[in-house]
Design the sequence.
């Protein structure tokens, strides 16, 4: 069965850092591009970052550019999001998601990990 | 950035009724639009991609239509498990963007 499991969320002070991980299983991880998507409490979904299957292409939303870095380790079937200089507005549930085929639609999602930025 | 506007914000319907949800793009996204369903405390689930293609395992009561700037998600006859929030998402250009969501609630 295809699974994505996020970890690494928690409470952090403004200006702090966190590293999120996403463990993939049940499919050939190295064949798929991946996304991070977040959802602030009670609000809509927001795309955060994308990374291609070989890490040759990466892209991030302007709201996190220069602060968040997406990466992956295909040998470990893992996706990462390094989050630095965190702000209160980064508070959200963070989901990792697999991209469908060669599209930018997301067909498999993890359950999410919660990041709270507060003093 | 392409802005997606969903309407209505909330749709109050009874089981068995037809639901029609709208998503309007600020510029043409051609057919590069998807619909997701999200239930409380759960991750989103892909329903429709490329405007009208049902994702794997999605029941036939869900259908999508439209192109350019105007899109519709139709649920032909609401089942109890269909009461949820629905989001549209475009992949026509970066950044990827989502609509604000439509909540389908039990009347």
Sequence:
């Amino acid at each position: 069965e295809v699974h994505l499991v996020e970890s690494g969320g928690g409470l952090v002070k403004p200006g702090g850092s966190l590293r999120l991980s996403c463990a993939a299983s049940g499919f050939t991880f190295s064949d798929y591009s991946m996304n991070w998507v977040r959802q602030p409490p009670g609000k809509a979904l927001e795309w955060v970052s994308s990374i291609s299957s070989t890490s040759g292409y990466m892209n991030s939303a302007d709201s996190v550019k220069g602060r968040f870095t997406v990466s992956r380790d295909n040998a470990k079937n893992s996706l990462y999001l390094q989050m630095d200089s965190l702000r209160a507005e980064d508070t959200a549930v963070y989901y990792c998601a697999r991209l469908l085929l060669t599209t930018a639609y997301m067909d498999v999602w993890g359950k999410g990990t919660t990041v709270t930025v507060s003093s | 950035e392409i802005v997606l506007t969903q309407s209505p914000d909330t749709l109050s319907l009874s089981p068995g009724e037809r639901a029609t949800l709208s998503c309007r793009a600020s510029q043409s996204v051609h057919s590069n639009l998807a619909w997701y369903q999200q239930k409380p405390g759960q991750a989103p689930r892909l329903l429709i991609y490329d405007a009208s293609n049902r994702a794997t395992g999605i029941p036939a009561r869900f259908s999508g239509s439209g192109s350019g700037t105007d899109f519709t998600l139709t649920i032909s006859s609401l089942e109890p498990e269909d009461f949820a929030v629905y989001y549209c998402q475009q992949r026509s250009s970066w950044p990827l963007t989502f609509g604000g969501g439509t909540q389908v609630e039990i009347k």
About this structure: DSSP finds no helices and eleven strands in chain B.
